[in-house]
Amino acid sequence: MTRTRFAPSPTGYIHIGNVRSAIYPYLIAKQDQGDFILRIEDTDQARYVADATDLIEETLAWLGLDWNEGPIVGGPYAPYFQTERKASYIEWAKKLIDMGRAYADDTSAEQIQKYREECAAKKIPYLYRNFRPENPPEWHEGLPLRFKADPKPRRWHDEVMGDLEAGPEVQDDIILIKADGLPTYNFAHIIDDAEMKVTHVCRGVEYLPSVPNYLALYEALDLEVPKLISLPHILGPTGGKKLGKRDGAKSVTEYRKDGILAEAMLNYLACLGWNDGTEQEIYTKDELINKFSINKIQNSGARYDETKLLWMNGQWIRKIVDEQGVEKLYERTLGFWPESAKSYDDEYRKKVLSIIYDRLKSLSDLRDMTTYFFEDPTIDLDMIINNKFLKKFSEEELSDMLQVTSRKLESVDNWEPEKLQEVLNGLLIELDKKPAELFSIIRIALSFAPFSPALPLTMDVLGKNIVLTRLQKAVTALEAPNNN
Ligand code: GLU
Q1: Residues 180-221: tens digit of each pLDDT
Q2: Which of 4, 161, 360, 419 is most buried (most C-beta within 10 Å)?
């Protein structure tokens, strides 16, 4: 049975790379009807951040990456927090001591530093095993415990990186248990993966150089090596180096707050470094589960591109409306509307959403793109005067266009999009203007916004009274420009 795990350290915010390391093992497990485990690797007390576990759980839940075993849900191999599994690590550590494959080490930090400097001076690589103490003390909690390496050539297969090999020079006496009594990542993850019967270890490529040491530990403990899957780095937008905070990459929580949909985030990250070889770009979670394959994970870094994420989010916004209706999207927009929308009812907001959704890249665009549906826009004559289609008209001519339009609209009883389109078309002939000219001045007068949906739709949602009032206000402003 396939068993995979996501094993984050609760050290703070969850970045894009962390999440991708959760998505792939989730897909691998689900594809095989296997189990996906969440394990919290909290042994690094110095880097521990109190709320980080909640954040991890919330993020996974938001993305729909439900874990079969782990915090909250429990499971047959509980506990799933490493700090609660100490007894287990000590037990395995003692096995190594008994076999003569681990030793207590009371060498001081200063002494270790001297060894390093000595090697640096001689220009030889620093390997602790070359300084192994001759008569190590008996181990007790409070003393670091080191592995006694068995350096030799090692070969292994990585599902992404292929057949690999490393020489003895990269194998050392790594620390298994620290002075604080907690295990190192290097030791703990091997024990946990074995005890939790993990079949596939999916993690960032930064762990690859340590694999020879891990192989030595698996061998010493007589444990089967799980399938190893090294995920290449996510690179910054310019492609050169690993994505960092400086590249503007936000935490997953921030993207969520900014109105990125979970489906889009999952889709985007899953495809960052994997594709099924077709042109398909939009995948639901179920499609990803069906189509994912380890052998199509790319072995070189994938470039992070926020523009693409936003594009994908826009696609998902439309997909939700097309497949589930505007109601379903509306439910997810609460919290993204401008302040002034609060005094309007759901029906009105839904109407606004139904004509604007196809322009949204993120839900938070609603905040800036819809204000004029809820409050009178601030009149900005420059927007009219500088408009490329309107530049050639005098203020008087523009005011005339709006007044004729206003009179025509006043007589419309059947205020609905088709009728309004008909009236607008009639006005083009009557005023002898091009659509770009007449419709631009009306559109600006109603919204004073850079974009708005098709005019008849906007007018329909705003309603007759507001349309007439706003046209009138624009007329007044055009006629007395100096007063504005
Ligand atoms: N705790 C490690 C990290 O957060 C996990 C690495 C692994 O998945 O084994 O990077």
Answers
A1: 999 999 999 999 999 999 999 999 999 999 999 999 999 999
A2: 4
Atom of ligand 1 minimally distant from the CA of 21: 8
Q: Which tokens is 139 given?
A: 């181990």
| Whether the CB of 189 sits within 6 Å of ligand 1 | yes
Among the residues of 157-283, which ranges form H helices?
A: 185-195, 211-221, 252-257, 262-270
Identify whether the C-beta of residue 234 lies closer than 8 Å to the C-beta of residue 301.
yes
Tokens 């090692």 — which residue?
Answer: 154
* Coil vs helix vs strand at 380: coil
**474 vs 384: CA distance, rounded Å:** 10
In this prediction, residues 161-169 reach a mean pLDDT of 97
Structure tokens at 34: 């296997």
Average pLDDT, integer, range 395-405 = 97
Q: Is residue 39 in contact with ligand 1, taking CB distance under 6 Å?
A: no
Of 52 and 245, the structure prediction assigns the larger pLDDT to 52
- The overall pTM is greater than 0.70: yes
Q: Is the CB of 192 under 6 A from ligand 1?
A: no
